[in-house]
Design a protein that fits this description.
Number of helices: 5
Helix content: 10-25%
Structural class: alpha+beta
Oligomer: single chain
Shape: elongated
Number of strands: 18
Radius of gyration: 21 Å
Length: 269
């Protein structure tokens, strides 16, 4: 798994652990909220009752009386996606609007022995399922394409490098029902010619470059820690066919990753 996904999911929370000043002295740029700050935050109309189990303020914020809170856009809801999830919130001074504070939230939890973390504020969500390099990148996105060769995107997905399991709405123009879509690439697909999960094989329907519908659901149901997962796919810019294999460590946590995907999509629509 590319480490950039791990850092993308945690970009605004890494500062909670440490930071370095120009003088090379390690300091903590965030601190736990005081009782006064917590009370003030709960009184803000823009908060929408976000369930912050832990609340941190940027250290440069000395008094909240001179600020107002910017509207908070919750990606899913004000509560964790899972009962065992815990939401941590971070308050920073807005870079764009003077005298305004921004709230960012993330959720962390475990499904069995599998850790997950995902952002909880903003139109799009980002996260990671697993630990270290062994895991799946996660995201929910609503984006308009700026390239005529690509399509607009609204959906959630998990991916290991270029292997994507997506949850998408009905694609009316293609007569593709709402549900799972297995692809190589997120929007501009390199066509899958064959997907092998253990002894089972799944192929694309007609001229579609991806696997969808009941075929995709059956493939995902067969993901198990003891199976080998591989797929053959053709490059868009050549006639070359490649075969790739999912790392065993990612296969082992595929079902918890899909569980996060399902719960996130249900809350994102």
């Amino acid at each position: 798994m590319d480490k950039k996904y791990i850092f993308a999911a945690l970009f605004f929370f890494s500062a909670l652990s440490h930071a370095t000043t120009d003088g090379g002295v390690t300091r903590h740029p965030f601190r736990r909220a005081t009782l006064e700050e917590t009370t003030w935050l709960k009184q803000q109309a823009n908060l929408h009752s976000v369930h912050c189990a832990d609340l941190y303020f940027a250290s440069e914020i000395s008094s909240v009386t001179e600020y107002s809170l910017a509207p908070v856009i919750m990606t899913f809801s004000s509560r964790p996606l899972f009962p065992q999830g815990r939401i941590t919130c971070q308050i920073t001074a807005s870079r764009n609007v003077p005298a305004t504070l921004d709230l960012f939230a993330k959720e962390e939890g475990s499904l069995g022995n599998t850790r997950y973390t995902l952002t909880h504020t903003g139109v799009n969500a980002d996260g990671y399922i697993g630990s270290g390099d062994d895991g799946w990148h996660f995201a929910c996105e609503t984006r308009e394409s700026i390239n005529d060769n690509d399509a607009d995107f609204h959906g959630c997905f998990i991916n290991e490098e270029n292997f994507y399991i997506q949850k998408v709405p009905e694609l009316t123009a293609l007569e593709v029902p709402e549900g799972y879509l297995i692809s190589v690439g997120k929007m501009r697909f390199n066509p899958i010619s064959k997907l092998r999960i253990g002894k089972s094989e799944f192929i694309t329907a007609a001229d579609f470059p991806f696997i969808y519908g009941n075929n995709a659901a059956q493939a995902i149901a067969r993901l198990d820690s003891n199976v080998r997962v591989s797929w053959s796919w053709g490059e868009l810019r050549s006639s070359r066919v490649r075969t790739s294999t999912l790392p065993p460590s990612s296969v082992a946590i595929a079902q918890p990753a899909v569980e996060v995907l399902d719960r996130a999509w249900a809350g994102y629509q």
